[in-house]
C-alpha cells in the first residue's frame, strides 16, 4: 500500500499592491494616484514636485497601473525633448547621418501621439483631440520629409558628415567653406513644432 498522498496545501500569497511610488522627476517616494469616481481619468501626482499626469482608467485600474501609464508618458515626453535638442546639436556639428535617424525616431514618436489623440477623440468626440491628432500627424509628416531631404543631400554629396578635422577648419573661418555652406541649405523644418511644444495643454495629453 502506498503512502497516503498528503493533501497539497496551496499557500496563496495575499499581495498587497503598492499605493505610493517613487517620482521619476524628483526621486521622492511621494507619487500617488487620485481616482475620481465620476471621471474617466486618474490623476497621478507627485506630492513633492507636483509633476502630474491624467491617465485612463477602467474598473480594474489599480494605482500601480496608473503609475505605469504615467511612467510611460513621462519617459516618452522626455525622449521627445531630448531628441529635439539632439536635432539642433547635429545640425551644428554637421552630423547628417545621425540626423536622419533622429528624424525617423521623432516621426515615430509624433505618430504615436497622433494615434493616441485620435483614440481619445473616438472615445469622447472632443474636437480638441481631433485637432491635436491632426497637428501631431502634420508634425510626423514634417519629420519624415526632413529625414528624406537630409538623406537626399547626403546621397548627392551636398551634405557630408563632418569629421573632427573639418569642424576645426570651419572654426578657423575658412572662406572656401562658405559657398559650400550656402549650397547646403537646411530643409524647412519645425514649422509647427515650436508652437506645439509651446502649447502646454498639448504635452499633458
Ligand atoms: Zn516628484
Report on the architecture of this protein.
- The chain is 56% helix and 8% strand.
- By secondary structure, the chain is mainly alpha-helical.
- The chain has two domains: 65 residues, N-terminal domain of TfIIb (Single Sheet); 111 residues, no CATH class.
- A three-stranded antiparallel beta sheet has the order 1-2-3, covered by helices on one side.
- The N and C termini lie far apart (69 Å).
- Zinc ion binds next to loops.
Runs with pLDDT <50, length 5+? 177-182, 196-205
Terminus-to-terminus distance: 69 Å
Series of H and E elements: EEEHHHHHHH
Mean pLDDT: 82
Bound molecules: zinc ion
Number of helices: 7
User: By helix and strand content, what is the structural category?
Assistant: mainly alpha
**In percent, how helical is the residue content?**
55-70%
Shape descriptor reads elongated
Q: How much beta, percentage-wise?
A: 5-15%
Number of strands: 3
Largest sheet: 3 strands, antiparallel
Compute the gyration radius: what is it? 25 Å
Number of domains: 2
Strand order of the largest sheet: 1-2-3
Amino acid at each position: 500500500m502506498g503512502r497516503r498522498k498528503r493533501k497539497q496545501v496551496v499557500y496563496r500569497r495575499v499581495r498587497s499592491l503598492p499605493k505610493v511610488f517613487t517620482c521619476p522627476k524628483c526621486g521622492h517616494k511621494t507619487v500617488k494616484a487620485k481616482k475620481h469616481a465620476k471621471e474617466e481619468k486618474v490623476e497621478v501626482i507627485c506630492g513633492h514636485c507636483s509633476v502630474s499626469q491624467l491617465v485612463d482608467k477602467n474598473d480594474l485600474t489599480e494605482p500601480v497601473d496608473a503609475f505605469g501609464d504615467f511612467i510611460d508618458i513621462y519617459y516618452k515626453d522626455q525622449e521627445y525633448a531630448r531628441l529635439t535638442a539632439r536635432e539642433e546639436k547635429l545640425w551644428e556639428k554637421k552630423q547628417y547621418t545621425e540626423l536622419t535617424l533622429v528624424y525617423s525616431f521623432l516621426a515615430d514618436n509624433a505618430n504615436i501621439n497622433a494615434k493616441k489623440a485620435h483614440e481619445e477623440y473616438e472615445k469622447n468626440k472632443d474636437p480638441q483631440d481631433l485637432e491635436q491628432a491632426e497637428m501631431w500627424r502634420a508634425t510626423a509628416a514634417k519629420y519624415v520629409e526632413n529625414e528624406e531631404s537630409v538623406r537626399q543631400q547626403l546621397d548627392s554629396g551636398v551634405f557630408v558628415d563632418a569629421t573632427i578635422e573639418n569642424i576645426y577648419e570651419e572654426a578657423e573661418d575658412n572662406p572656401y567653406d562658405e559657398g559650400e555652406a550656402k549650397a547646403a541649405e537646411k530643409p524647412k523644418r519645425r514649422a509647427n513644432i515650436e508652437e506645439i511644444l509651446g502649447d502646454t495643454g498639448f504635452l499633458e495629453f
